[in-house]
């Protein structure tokens, strides 16, 4: 072809055959069609684009290879309490809130469930965080570590962004709570480390209205609480 190419000749030949066949058909069925002037250049550019795309795909696969991590519940530092807040959304769109507060030894300090209504998953997560903070505030804790399993919620309340317009009012309420005279840090945690709060959120979906408060651990989640205290782990596949 009179062209100094470094790409694999076999691929170049395959591309050339494809283009020659395509140009021939267009000439046969379209009287106004004419082949490109620099036919070899057209083939080479297509081959280069293909090679770059394949290299990018290979690089992406190498960077984002899946790996397995072991997830478990971890207690807060001494002097702090940990609020695990979660939401549960049924198939019909009804959502409930569940929140659990525990101390540095894993001891139960309080729990609650609430039916919220029909909302999107994102708004439901915001409701869960808001209700959890208000519950912790009512118990007069001053140093609180909060775990939510929604990365989007954690990011929006920890930044100056407003996020989706649907949850903007809730975000503003959460930020006003965070600005009060207490120390609150919000972290993201995987759902596998939030099983107790998730169970109470499921219970919240079954309520018709109002709150249910739990001064002691409900018998229905005793096993989950015990597994957390023992440090049981759950495997989760993530991108490395």
UniProtKB/TrEMBL annotation:
<dbReference type="GO" id="GO:0003676">
    <property type="term" value="F:nucleic acid binding"/>
</dbReference>
<dbReference type="InterPro" id="IPR044730">
    <property type="entry name" value="RNase_H-like_dom_plant"/>
</dbReference>
<protein>
    <submittedName>
        <fullName>Ribonuclease H</fullName>
    </submittedName>
</protein>
<dbReference type="InterPro" id="IPR012337">
    <property type="entry name" value="RNaseH-like_sf"/>
</dbReference>
<dbReference type="Pfam" id="PF13456">
    <property type="entry name" value="RVT_3"/>
</dbReference>
<dbReference type="InterPro" id="IPR053151">
    <property type="entry name" value="RNase_H-like"/>
</dbReference>
<dbReference type="InterPro" id="IPR036397">
    <property type="entry name" value="RNaseH_sf"/>
</dbReference>
<feature type="domain" description="RNase H type-1">
    <location>
        <begin position="77"/>
        <end position="206"/>
    </location>
</feature>
<dbReference type="GO" id="GO:0004523">
    <property type="term" value="F:RNA-DNA hybrid ribonuclease activity"/>
</dbReference>
<dbReference type="InterPro" id="IPR002156">
    <property type="entry name" value="RNaseH_domain"/>
</dbReference>
